[in-house]
Amino acid sequence: MKTTPFDVRVVTLSCVFHLVADHLGVDRTALSPQMSLRSLGADDLDEIELVILLEQEFDIEIADGEIDNDKTLGDLVNVVLKHGAEP
Fold it and tell me: Which residues are bridge partners to 36 per DSSP?
């Protein structure tokens, strides 16, 4: 079966949710793409650590300032996909 862009986005979203939930200690099932890192209680250190986790998980390099606490979880997925990463 061929993988579609929608499939890649859904799997990437699931992976991002898992990383964020584990790192911030929040319930993964309560997350939505519209939630910001700030609304989940993330501080500047969490932002840095999440960037590192995303880079390691998806084997990508995220530029400084590409992710901040005002970014939504959907924005995180877009950044990951922009770098051509696949889960």
Answer: 72
**Tell me: the pLDDT tens digits for 6-40?**
788 899 999 999 999 999 999 999 999 999 999 99
Catalytic residue among 7, 22, 43, 59: 43
Give yes or no: 64 in active site. Answer: no
Report the C-alpha gap between 36 and 71 in whole angstroms.
Answer: 5
Query: Could you write out the DSSP letters of every residue in 25-58?
Result: T--GGG--TT-BTGGGT--HHHHHHHHHHHHHHH
Residue corresponding to tokens 């877009």: 78
**Whole-structure pTM value:** 0.87
CATH superfamily of 5-82: ACP-like (1.10.1200.10)
DSSP type of residue 64: T
